[in-house]
Amino acid sequence: MEWKHRHVLDLKDWTRNEILFLLGQAKNMDDLMDRPIRKVPALRGKLVVNLFFEASTRTRVSFELAEKMLSADVVNWSASGSSVGKGETLRDTAWTLEAMGADAVVIRHGSVGSAHYLSKKLHRASVFNGGDGAYSHPTQALLDAYTAWKHFSSLEGRRLAIIGDVLHSRVARSDVQVFRELGCEVVLSGPETLMPLDVAAMGVAYEPDPRKAVKGADMVYLLRIQRERQEEGLFPSLDEYYLRYGAGEDLVARAEKGALVMHPGPINRRVEIDSTVADGTQSRILQQVRSGVAVRMALLYLCLGGVMA
Ligand code: CP
User: Which domains does the chain have, with CATH numbers?
Assistant: First the structure.
């Protein structure tokens, strides 16, 4: 397939064929991760800057690992200690980094549209969205799809239940796009106060009771309560939240036998998920983390025109 994407901003216009092609490339990268020497010269000479305005463990570290395994030169930039503190704008920061030769910028930012904005302002560099506000987290959704696809082979006709704080979740929005494109039925569950108004427009169902939502589900996907993005009072207390919406073994037992338990991380134990489930045999949470490296390697390789020797 001829790869047409220079940037990875959201997944709105990604076709099923493109997603499946990407998953196939990620499988090659996944296999490469098992080799004794996990480095290939595919991006030798390319400079990638990781621009993180918000906290991150998984996205930041896995992008960095992916870049290094593809032999790119890597610069890690964070807002604290930078000239942003002296009033430099996002555009000027990005232009400065591009002037130093950046071929790609990975950005995580609290503002919706920040990655799209950079893609319009940068002259040559590719932009990878590592999460912008509550809008999009495309690489997370692709690694989620990869994790499930690797297990089931095909996601056509599978049912995905996403439970929790959908309103503030960029992961949920991106997951809905990619899993629906791959032929899944998606149901959202959680408190009504934590659901977006446009659930119907998203093409998914809403079932307030998680015990009903997980019926027939092949994948049970828990979301973190994003306290950093929400006002007080959207649900009574964390204890009550756990009792009504948290995933214990009893909830998972209502899903399909062997259903995958997924979570983007970081997890809050005993808030949205119990340890028996997070660390249980059905959990794919750490596999998702590993998938993050493989999927980001594949995206960098394809978008930057990597060459395998
Ligand atoms: N899932 C995810 O984006 O995790 P981080 O915030 O640790 O990157």
Answer: 16-135+289-303 (3.40.50.1370), 138-288 (3.40.50.1370)
